[in-house]
Amino acid sequence: MAFRSRYFIDRETQLNLVFSFLVMVLIIAVITFSNFTYFAIFFKEFVLSEPEAAGLNSIIDSAIATFKGRLLLLFVIDILILFVMGILISHRIAGPIYKFGRRISKYLTGDMTEKITLRRTDLLFELADSLNSYFDFLRSKLQRLKDLTAELPESDKKHELQKELECFKLK
Where are the strands (E) in the chain, listed by range? Predict the structure, then answer.
């Protein structure tokens, strides 16, 4: 796997997505842990005879003591896995959005020479194709206007129109 030397992601946007994802997972984990705790407390308070209750309490206490460390370790591992997954998923979302913004900013300055390029695994690949088709159409129309302007008879209006169209780099 090759590492990138250049990133196309606004790090703040990516970190916000990862943080939101982790908060959501943390809330789910707290709810799940609370349910397990409530379940354990329910069984401890279950009405049993004295010898049965003592045996059940010792089983529950030993199970909680045994699994508490493991659950904490699993929770930390889950958080690490979710953090990496969050970065990967947000990279597939935030990266294309960042590229769209950069490319459209260049289009606004008149540089229409490049297309929006994304990886096939990016989540907004279809949108990039649609935008590229739209800008291809726009480029062809602007080129047609340039060609038609060249055919006009010499006048101040022709020079004004040519000057306006010169700000677009189409090829």
Answer: none
Under 8 Å between Cβ of 168 and 142: yes
Q: How is residue 38 written in tokens?
A: 């409530």
Cα 73 from Cα 78, distance rounded (Å): 9
Q: Which residue has the tokens 């649609």?
A: 130
- Predicted model pTM: 0.54
Distance of CA 148 to the CA centre of its chain: 44
State how far the Cα of 7 lies from the Cα of 91, in Å rounded to an integer: 10
> pLDDT by residue (tens digit) across 23-72?
777 877 777 777 777 776 766 666 666 776 677 777 777 777 777 777 77
pLDDT of residue 1: 46
Is 72 buried (19+), middle (13-18) or exposed (0-12) by CB count in 10 A?
A: exposed
